[in-house]
Amino acid sequence: FTNLTGHPAVVVPSGFAPVKDEPPESPRRNATSLQFIARLYRDEHALAAAHTFQQATDFHTRRPPIS
Question: Alpha carbon of 20 to those of 13, 33, 38, 56: distances in Å?
């Protein structure tokens, strides 16, 4: 919805979730993400939140299994 309102937003990876209808032991995973939205003209707030999140986690360095 931010495309319509003009609010600044940034999306960061937040992990992997099991693929629906796959057995739990399946290595397949779907990437998940988190979106930070700030008030109008406050881009730095969204970017600061995303930066803090990425410093506290390692999701941005992980890759899903290929097989």
Answer: 19, 17, 32, 28
